[in-house]
Amino acid sequence: IYNEDMAFLGVLPPDIQPHATTHIAEMIALIAALIERGHAYAAQGHVLFHVPSFPAYGGLSGRSRDDQIAGARVEVSPFKKDPADFVLWKPSADDQPGWDSPWGRGRPGWHIECSAMAEKHLGLPFDIHGGGADLKFPHHENEIAQSCCAHGHENDLSAFAKYWVHNGFVTVEGEKMSKSLGNTVLAHDLVQNHAGETLRLALLSAHYRQPLDWTEHGIQQAKKYLDRLYQILRLSADLPADDSVALPSSVMEALCDDLNMPMVLAAINDLTRDEKDKAVLKSRLLKIGALLGILQQDPAQWLGYAAATDGGADAAAIEARLAQRQAAKKDRNFALADQIRKELEAQGIIIEDTANGPVWRRVG
After folding, report:
1. Whole-angstrom Cα distance, residue 39 to residue 313?
2. What angle do CA 74, 168, 201 make, to 5 degrees?
3. Which of 129, 242, 249, 361 is the 20 to 30 Å CA partner of 65?
4. Are the beta carbons of 285 and 232 closer than 8 angstroms?
5. Nearest to residue 10, comparing CAs of 194, 229, 145?
């Protein structure tokens, strides 16, 4: 379901989707290396990472020693050498999942799986590590500690990942998203009622490091923004697209500025206002769209104009009402013409009067 929803949003599938349960051997080997290097110890069926053995711990989040203990979300058990120490392996009861290990039957802690799978499939160091801001501590700090200390890179945090990309928190209509408030929003529900590109642009509208307030208004604004760009493409349908036309430098500069999407959207607005050559504008919009994963649909289909040419009884009935509206306007019966327009709008049909006569499109 997740993969289907992500595909709907235009997200390419990952090359690898490893399962933690198929990497137990790699986790055990990593834990053994940490014990051997003096960064972990076994106690009462548990294996714990000894945080004081890694002075650089906290370098990602910038948390102080007291903050680390307060925010670690770990039990202060009597067998711990230090309150900040975290679990690498813990014993499993008979009714719990478990695997044999040098420390008895048990299962891995919360963090070790990520270090083991990243090392196996990406190699160390890998380029970019992503995640929510809430994972920076303790999860990401612990990943760094495990991977760096297991391989003798205690003084080089970048020996695990070179760059960290933490997205901001999400609120819904100004409130924290939580089960207790009943305002949890799932992509799987949103895709039932909105186009993938609309949701994609709404998600991209804020800078990824900043909080994102998910609102119905924001979704509608994203739809209007895309409609405007698709209208430009529809009106230039007969013009050739030139692949040799370069992307606007302002767009690339914004993307290179820590993926500054608000600045990208502003640059697109400037482009649509300032570029007078319609063929160049079309070419640049298509290039930008390919880069951002938007403007990938047929403009007439996206905007609803295609419904007028698809035929069928419904289209015929709408054309008949349009003819009645034209006749009413000719007879200067503007009240009837306005009534017909409102009737069609209630059905999701928008009428646009042009120099060549009225055209209609279906929205929603």
Report:
1. 74
2. 140
3. 129
4. yes
5. 194
CA 80 to chain centre: 38
184 three-class SS: coil
Sign of CA dihedral 227, 232, 238, 239: negative
| C-alpha distances in Å from residue 1, one per residue of 22, 196, 203, 277 | 21, 15, 19, 44
Q: How far apart are CA 159 and CA 120, in angstroms?
A: 15
Measured between alpha carbons, how far is residue 113 from residues 42, 56, 59, 272, 327 in Å? 18, 21, 21, 48, 72
- Strand ranges for 135-183 from DSSP E: 161-167, 170-172, 175-176
Residue listed under structure tokens 């034209």: 326
Tokens matching residue 130: 């992503």
Give the residue with greater pLDDT, 231 vs 328.
231
pTM of the full structure: 0.85
Query: If you average pLDDT over residues 324-338, what whole number do you get?
Result: 89
Place of tokens 């003084």: 155
Q: In the chain, what are the helix, strand and coil shares in percent, each to the nearest 5?
A: 50, 15, 40
Run of H or E residues at 328: helix 313-330
Distance between CA 72 and CA 112 in Å, rounded? Answer: 15
Q: What is the pLDDT of residue 74?
A: 55
Q: Which residues contact 265 (CB under 8 A, 6 or more apart)?
A: 205, 225
Rounded distance, CA 65 to CA 84, Å? 9
pLDDT at 351: 87
* Confidence band of 355 (pLDDT split at 50, 70, 90): confident
Q: Measuring CA to CA, which residue among 35, 56, 53 is closest to residue 101?
A: 35
Rounded (10°) CA dihedral 196, 200, 205, 207: 170
